[in-house]
Amino acid sequence: MGKVGVDIDHAASIIANGGVVAFPTETVYGLGANALNPNAVAKVFALKERPSFDPLIVHIASVESINLLSSSNDPRVFQLAEKFWPGPLTIVVTKSTIVPGIVTSDLDTVGIRMPSHPIALELIKKSGCVIAAPSANKFGRVSPTRAEHVLKQLPDVDYILDSGKTTVGIESTVVTLDEEGFIILRHGAITHNHLAQVVKPSSARLPKKGLASPGLLKSHYSPSKPLFIASEASKLIDPAKTGYIAFGQKPQGDYKRVEYLSEKADLVEAAAHLFEKIHALEDSDVDYILIDPVPETGIGIAIMDRLRKATFRYR
Ligand code: AMP
Ligand code: MG
């Protein structure tokens, strides 16, 4: 049997037997293992070369699984779940003793999400497990929005469930709660304004304790080629060697390749194309990648967060 395919039963039995499967979600492809099996979870860290301080998100297919994974009975958790699940929101809550320390980097909290992708939901149900899954890329590299991106970075994974391109295109919003209200730990498609319809925001920017949320690292999502946010200075780079990822208008200059985040300057479309276009230019014959900044409103905040981290090591 090939490494990439559409056999959900096969993928589910790999997970149930302690193996590791890459699978599509609406955000990006995840690298999943049985969250309650520490040996299986260890394989995820090893494959990704992920440092042990970076906790995994546990993916569930029914709201009742919150009670398995968490000792919290904070009604706001259930209000957020009711409104935004299934969907691209991870809720960080106090963990129960059943969750192995390797999943949460020994934090006393666990991030939980119910994805909306039908194949992800079916995989979780058929495996009979809750699935710990970070994005299916090498640590610090660009997240995968296609099965091909996973295969490129993680050829040793047991199986890759292929469902074409993901729709949201960037990782989930990660949110936690203090006494006052919600705190966003990582920006995503569910924005501050969406969350504020259900729960009050906290005045704190970060939780008082237990912050080891690598969504907050300065460098992340880096391609193998130098990537710069387009500015007056970056226009000194030779266009004949450069791929340009534009938002809205066509760039001025004779660039070797031009791709679009969104020709009509739509932020949701731009998020869906962000990692997709970076992968495309990473795999092309250009030496440098330039990308337009986007307005920091709505999902644009999450896009600029990813771009600043992706360009950090080239500044
Ligand atoms: P990934 O989806 O691969 O980007 O990784 C999951 C991210 O979720 C981590 O890097 C953290 O930023 C965040 N996360 C997961 N669990 C927790 C937790 N218990 N507390 C804070 N952040 C978390
Ligand atoms: Mg990741």
Mean pLDDT: 94
Residue share in β-strands: 15-25%
How helix-rich are the residues, as a percent range? Answer: 25-40%
Number of strands: 14
Radius of gyration: 19 Å
- Low-confidence residue ranges: none
Structural class: alpha/beta
Helix/strand order: EHEEHEHHEHEHEHEEEHEEEHEH
Widest beta sheet: strand line-up:
1-8-2-3-7-4-6-5-9-10
Tertiary shape: globular
Number of helical segments with 4 or more residues: 10
Hetero compounds: adenosine monophosphate, magnesium ion
CA-CA gap between termini: 44 Å
Largest sheet: 10 strands, mixed
Topology of helices and strands:
Elements: E1 4-5, H1 8-16, E2 21-23, E3 30-34, H2 38-48, E4 57-59, H3 65-69, H4 75-84, E5 89-94, H5 101-104, E6 109-113, H6 118-127, E7 131-132, H7 147-153, E8 159-161, E9 173-177, E10 182-186, H8 192-196, E11 227-229, E12 242-247, E13 257-262, H9 267-282, E14 288-291, H10 300-311
Helix pairs in contact: 1-6
This protein binds adenosine monophosphate and magnesium ion.
Adenosine monophosphate is lined by residues 54-55, 57, 90, 92, 104, 107, 109-111, 134-135, 171, 174, 185-186, 213-215.
Molecular structure report:
With 315 residues, the protein is α/β, with parallel strands linked by helices. The protein is 28% helix and 18% strand. It is built from ten helices and 14 strands. The strands form two sheets. A ten-stranded mixed sheet has the order 1-8-2-3-7-4-6-5-9-10, with helices on both faces. Strands 11-14-12-13 form a four-stranded parallel sheet. The termini are far apart. The mean pLDDT is 94. Bound molecules: adenosine monophosphate (AMP) and magnesium ion (MG). Adenosine monophosphate binds at residues 54-55, 57, 90, 92, 104, 107, 109-111, 134-135, 171, 174, 185-186, 213-215.
